[in-house]
Amino acid sequence: MPPSLATLTTSILLLSLLSAVSSSSLPQENGIRVVSAEKRVDLTGSIVKVFLTLKVENAADAASDASQVLVAFTPTEVEHLSIVKAMKVEGKRKKKAYTPLSVQALDLTTTPNGACLYSVQLSTPLKPGEATTLEVLYVLTHSQEPFPAEISQSESQLVHYRDSAVLLSPYNVMEQVTYIKMPSNRIESFTRVDPTGRAGTELKYGTYKNQMPYTYIPILLHYENNHPFAIVEELVCKVEISHWGNVQITEHYKLKHGGARHKGVFSRLEYQSRPSISGTSSFKKILARLPPRVHSVYYRDEIGNISSSHLRSDSHKTELEIEPRYPLFGGWHCTFTIGYGMPLQDFLFESDDGRRYINLTFGSPLLDTVVDDLTIKVVLPEGSKNPQPVVPFLVDHHLETSYSYLDVVGRTTVVLKKKNIVGEHNVPFQVHYEFNPIFMLAEPLMLISAVFLFFVSCIAYLHMDLSIAKSS
Ligand SMILES: *[C@@H]1O[C@H](CO)[C@@H](O)[C@H](O)[C@H]1NC(C)=O
Ligand SMILES: *[C@@H]1O[C@H](CO)[C@@H](O)[C@H](O)[C@H]1NC(C)=O
Q: Does one domain contain both 139 and 108?
């Protein structure tokens, strides 16, 4: 019996509905699938790092080349997502070559379970039947939640971490495994999703086969993590360029221990007499990695200079060990300032078009630390014009004018702002600007004229006869 007209129209309707849904919510390149995926989660620090190795394939019968591969995150992950980096891997074993790829957040709201998609742009489109291997690194901050939220001085810190046993992906995943590296042997509990295994400090979820797109299997881990939860709530970094040979850096920090809050009173006696068990979750120093050849390094807080800090330097780097006046326990704050000078010739260059540019490092020099709110102010020499920052990721920026001694018109200042900064953001950035060398003479000329005026007035004063007696 031939199908009736009614069923035909319904099926056509259904088909067109289906295609409408897929074109609005799913990626254009439907031919992509993940042949194998490996997810490695590193929980050994206070910052969570996740490495994905994805072997993706464009189906042999795909209608078109694929120019992008999508990576999915949950809305909670996006809230804590600090950076996503992707690379294409070519070659095998020791001859691997990595090509960085650009990553963009997509603005799609129609994905199942609210997943947010990021697009990895392939450097060469993937033809039907071709496969490629991608490595993706993403960093999550504030994602290990202390549980219990309050502990006393001698207790260890336990935290919760939530994730999915399988890779959240808009594609079919043929084969997948997840490894989770724990900070210590003490694991209170972890969700099992068979097969699940534990070997020392590593958990293994999988291998899982043939997952549907957007599969998400929640897992909850509860474990000990006494790594310093150092959080810089606010960092304002000022860079002052003087064409007379110096770059002066001043950094104001508002540091916090972001782990489980400290409960009860703090006993310094107990802290000092039993250092191995008392205050295991606290930290008393933090390391800053500064550029080589820095000079006049200082470290002070609101009371004054702190001389207990240690400075070590070699030809590649300088390390400053910052030791606040008291150890930091969960919820405790301290504010301090570090400052140093750097030789101008290491950082200031001239570009081909005759403009100058300063080449600095973004982010904070503190190791293993999250910066919630970063402001970098690059104060250009007086008389600089048309500044233009070049930063390899999105930042907010605006211009302002700052004044210092002997300034007449003020200094153009480029202000860069970004939230949720981690070590992966420590990459070079530049500020290009125009400068007329005649301005170099402004300050000395002002000084000379001031000194000259002073002498002239001295001479005038000495030669003036101010006595009343003679004039009579
Ligand atoms: C603090 O150290 C800086 C740099 O070493 C120095 O110039 C300043 O005089 C010191 N201040 C005090 C109060 O010791
Ligand atoms: C900036 O400095 C870094 C090293 O600190 C260097 O690798 C990079 O090439 C420099 N960039 C420019 C544009 O000069």
A: yes
Do 217 and 335 share a domain, yes or no?
Answer: no
CB distance 430 to ligand 2 below 6 Å: yes
Q: Looking at the structure, tell me whether residues 271 and 204 fall in a common domain.
A: no
User: Which of 178, 207, 224 lies at the terminal end of a domain, its last residue?
Assistant: 224
Ligand nearest to the CA of 350: 2
Boundary (domain end) residue, out of 224, 245, 264 = 224
What pLDDT digit, counting tens, does each position of 84-127 carry?
999 999 888 778 889 999 999 998 777 888 899 999 999 999 99
Same domain? 213 vs 267: no
* CA of 361, nearest ligand number: 2
The CA 305 to ligand 1 mean position distance, Å, reads 6
* Residue 286 located in a structural domain: yes
Q: What is the pLDDT of residue 275?
A: 67
Range of the domain at 262: 230-442
Which residues does 76 contact at the CB level (< 8 Å), separation at least 6?
162
The alpha carbon of 430 and the centre of ligand 2 are apart by a number of angstroms equal to: 9
Per DSSP bridges, beta strands 411-421 and 370-379 are antiparallel
**Domain count along the chain:** 2
Residues 257 and 405 in one domain: yes
If asked whether residues 366 and 242 sit together in one domain, one would say yes
Q: What pLDDT does 425 receive?
A: 96
pLDDT at 1: 40
138 and 73 within one domain: yes
Atom of ligand 2 nearest to the CA of 349: 14
Cβ of 342 closer than 6 Å to ligand 2, yes or no, is no
14 lies in a domain?
no
Which residue is closest in CA terms to ligand 1's atom 5? Answer: 298
pLDDT at position 470 is: 54
pLDDT 10s digits, 380-410: 988 898 999 999 999 999 999 988 776 777 8
Q: Lowest-confidence range among 88-97, 239-248, 251-260, 321-330? A: 88-97
Supply the mean pLDDT for the chain: 87
Nearest residue CA, atom 8 of ligand 1? 305
Task: Identify the nearest ligand to the CA of 340 by its number.
Answer: 1
pLDDT at 448 over 60: yes
- The residue whose CB lies within 8 Å of the most ligand 2 atoms, and thus the one to mutate among 359, 426, 429, is 359
The CATH number assigned to the domain holding 210 equals 2.60.40.1730
Q: Quick check: CB of 359 below 6 Å from ligand 2?
A: yes
Is the pLDDT at 306 greater than 50? The verdict is: yes
What does the pLDDT read at residue 15?
A: 37
